[in-house]
Amino acid sequence: MSQEPNAKPAGSGLLNLLVDYGPVAVFFAVYKHYSPPAGEDAVAEVAAVIRGTGSFMVAAVIALAVSKWKLGKISPMLWLSTALIVVFGGLTVFLHDETWIQIKPTAIYLLFGVSLLIGVARGRPLLKYLLQAAFEGLNDLGWMKLSRNWGLFFFALAALNEVLRRQLSFGDWIAAKLWLFMPLTFLFTFAHIPMLLRHGLAEQAEGEVLSDPPHE
User: Are 12 and 71 in contact (CB under 8 A)?
Assistant: First the structure.
């Protein structure tokens, strides 16, 4: 049985998840491994941040290469986030100031939010050009709503990141990136399923099932 030309590689969903969140997990693991007990050694704390940041940068570049190798493409969002990781991570390492790596998510969220909302204002849902393969069949109104909602959500994440980085210790902020931001993102994504189904996604899926010939 031959594979369809446009078929997604097996396990691409898990691979996308690893590409997106693997570098953050690497950063968290390295930082936790080297960080001293809270408040005991400020120099060792900075050193742990530097090691974690260096690992984060390397892991982000590896994720970029894996995306190209295994998925055959690198999304514009992944290009941008990797570039910002390298830039802000480099500033963190060079200046020995953890603030830069904490500002990086805010910059990413604001750039994505502004881009999406400008696109909506101009009648061009940018998510359609980035995620069309993932939501085939979604109509134009659905794409507009999805782009608008994600634009606003990115602004909310930027605000939340700024509040948390000012209120929490660096270690707690890192933990929040994994245990708060990731669940919020998944919940926000799944909350859109009813809207997506109302705007053509289910019809596309049903059409594909009915039109696919049985495989031998």
Answer: yes
* Cα–Cα nearest to 178, from 27, 48, 47: 27
- Looking at the chain, the whole-number percentage of residues with pLDDT higher than 70 is 83
Q: Where are the domains positioned within the chain?
A: 10-93, 98-210
Q: What is the pTM of this model?
A: 0.72
Q: What is the mean pLDDT of residues 123-139?
A: 80
The pLDDT tens digits of the residues spanning 152-206 come to 999 999 999 999 999 998 888 888 887 898 889 889 989 988 888 888 776 544 4
Backbone angles phi, psi at 73, to 5 degrees: -160, 165
Distance CA 163, CA 141 (A): 33
Sign of the alpha-carbon torsion through 96, 89, 170, 45 = negative
Helix H or strand E encompassing 153: helix 140-167
| Residue 46 token pair | 């900075």
- Label residue 183 exposed, middle or buried (CB < 10 Å: 0-12, 13-18, 19+): exposed
